[in-house]
Amino acid sequence: MNWIWFGIRVLGLTSYLLLTLSVLGGILRGVPKKKFFLLQFHQQIGQIALLLGGLHGFLLLFDSYEPYSLTGLLIPFASSFEPVLSGFGTIGLYLLLIVIVTSDFMKTIGRAAWKKAHYLAFPSWLLIWAHGLFIGTEGREEWALAMYGSTFLLVLFATIYMTVGRRKQNKPVDARSSH
């Protein structure tokens, strides 16, 4: 077994799953009784996902099957192997880095700027989702299709659920309906 290739796969999949959990934790952070726990979970899991994603990329420099150059790894769409899908992974990781760094400096940059930057988590996750699904070795395996499909639906439904819930909370009460 090629341990570098195995490490690339494990780190990529684990990073993606942790990122998905972090995104779900961020979306569901509005659940009143679990707010503090979800915030801590969301932040820590997101940081670990970034670290593992970075290690996933780093190991690609040493892969014997399809080694990446430093340029191909760091510059989106510059890879000789699947440039678009590789670029999705690179951009997704850069966006995640922006989300995490701006979170660390929220008090400095202000809540409004932080919130705008934090919404980059969605395109980051979606790019990494597409990267893993379409470039990953397992992408055509039934279990991988089920994982990518179910995680996509989980994020979609959690987003819809929280969006609808917030709209209901912010909806003004009609004075006529109170009688």
Spell out the helices and strands N to C: HHHHHHHH
- Share of residues in helices: over 70%
Work out the count of structural domains: 1
Measured on Cα atoms, how large is the radius of gyration? 19 Å
- Give the percentage of residues in beta strands: under 5%
Q: Tell me, briefly, the overall form.
A: globular
Distance between the termini: 73 Å
Quaternary structure annotation? single chain
Low-confidence parts, pLDDT < 50 over ≥5 residues? none
Largest sheet: none
Summing up helix and strand content along with how strands pair, one would put the structural category as mainly alpha
Mean pLDDT over the full residue set: 91
Tally of alpha and pi helices: 8
The total strand number stands at 0
Protein name: Ferric oxidoreductase domain-containing protein
Organism: Rossellomorea marisflavi
Subcellular location: Membrane
Pfam families: Ferric_reduct
Describe it for me?
- The protein is mainly alpha-helical and 179 residues long.
- It has one domain.
- 75% of the residues lie in helices and 0% in strands.
- The protein has helices at residues 3-27, 35-60, 70-74, 83-104, 106-109, 111-118, 121-135, 142-170.
- It starts with a helix and ends in a 9-residue tail after the last helix.
Topology:
Layout: H1 3-27, H2 35-60, H3 70-74, H4 83-104, H5 106-109, H6 111-118, H7 121-135, H8 142-170
Descriptive terms for the model:
179 residues, mainly alpha, 8 helices, 0% strand, globular, transmembrane, Fe3_Rdtase_TM_dom
